[in-house]
Amino acid sequence: MDSSTDSEDMLLLAYPKLEIPPGMKVFPTEVIIQPKRIKRPSKMSAVTLETSRSSMHRLIQGDALEEEEEIESEERSYSSGEESDEVNEEDNEWDTDLEIEDERSSYDATGKNIYLEACRELSVVPTSFFIRHMTQPELAMKHHGLSPQGAKAIAIPLVTNTTVLTLDLEDNWLGPEGAGYIADMLKENCYISDLNLANNRIGSEGLGAICEMLKFNMNIRKINLSGNDLRDKDAEILAKTILENNMINDLDLSHNELGEVAGEILGPAIGENEIIETLDLSWNHLRRKGAEAICEGVKVNARLKRFNMSWNGLGNEGAVAMADALRHNSMLLELDISSNRITPEGAVMLGKGLDPNETLKVLRVGKNPLNTLGAFALLNSINNERSLLVELDLTDILVDKEFDNLHKDMLESRELRVIHGGLIGNYVIKGPQKKLTGPDGIVLHSEDGEIFDSRALDEFLRTDPMAILKKHIEKNNLRMVDFFNQFDKDKNYKITLEEFKKGVTQANVGLSDEQIDVLIKRLDCGEKDGMVDYSELVLGTFRLTQETRKLKKQSISARSTGRVNSR
Predict the structure, then answer these.
(1) Long-range contacts at 322-326 (CB < 8 A, ≥ 24 apart)
(2) pLDDT (tens digit, 9 = 90+) per residue, 31-60?
């Protein structure tokens, strides 16, 4: 039997029902190549896609609806005629290349389709801005009116988004519910590092969700929670987060309702934190012990570089605490304590802390009632070789010629930008004063429309050492700085107590040794460092003015009783 006959016999043995047409020759073969079999997505791929989407929804909605969604998914599969028989699953997954291939669904890498589907399910109008920018590193959606449901819709595709690094949702009325959806998303997303939830009124509930998320998220470095109605009761969870989180280096808690109690709680946490470099507590209600506790935390903090505590209630007590912080802190570069009710007295004490500081570069103290005396005290405190300050912001505070001259002198040896409210001149009002007498012949004075008995005031001005010194300076047509410079040989606006005492004696001011000692004790009451600087002398003048006004108010009389004659 030839080879052809053998091949025919083999085919007949393998396939008994096979009929070979007459004249057809069968050639010997060793390998029978079967049609190519290609594995492709089966009809079950739709079910798989649906299950994936349901899983993504559960990240936002929780696990409570897991079983119900799986049942609904199966019902949709059966209603559409999809195969679900596990016995035939393998056959359905394998087709020959001879069959017509099913249409394949393309993979949506952007998440656009998922977002649109989420909007349909939540009955939310899709935001075209989100669709256009969801593949860019910065997604800034301020003032878009998302509401909680809108936040839920964008949270779903952001779960698996890998391109957005900065998420800005400021002023979208998210509320506690919307903050919860964003927090759930960030438990899974590990790419977003900058989060802005300012002005969304998330309250205590929303803050709790965010702080809980921060226990799991190890990627967020900057977070803005300003304008979210946070109060003293929220200080505990904030302090705990500040202590435990080791990733956030920029924290904004401004424009909230954090008060004295919150300050006492947050202060120690700030002191122990070793990560935060930028902290904003502006526009809160931090005052008294709360403000002092915050300053104490800044004092011992070894990482903070930029601190904003403007528009609070530091006052002079807080200024003293901040001065102590500046004296010991060697890391702080920028400090903003604008609008904190700091008077000239507080400015002088603040200057005591600025004097030894060697790191601060920017100081903002504008919109405080410092007047020209406090402004000069601050400028004079940085008039040394140690200071690295390059910007002094005194917005809305008037300065005088003494301030301007000192600033010009400093510019010859260093760079210093000063912002102030304008330059005023030194004016002296001269001319005879109209004398008034009361019914008993008592000499009265008139000022700003008020008539008062000047006997107590005259006695004070006759015996008070500072009043006598001021009268001597005015009588000799001098300025306070001119009088001080007579003793300041080094021109550093500082002299020893002995130099001051000797100078006052030689100038024939008219003070006894006892009065000079009283004056020195009054001027050196703050630091007690054995030195008198010009700012302390200016502060003494300011206190004299306050005391004079107080005595005038106490002496106002005879406006409507008795007869007042002019002479």
Answers:
(1) 322/295, 322/298, 322/350, 322/353, 323/349, 323/350, 323/351, 323/352, 323/353, 323/354, 324/295, 324/299, 324/353, 325/295, 325/296, 325/298, 325/299, 325/353, 326/350, 326/353, 326/354, 326/357, 326/360
(2) 444 444 434 443 333 333 444 455 455 544
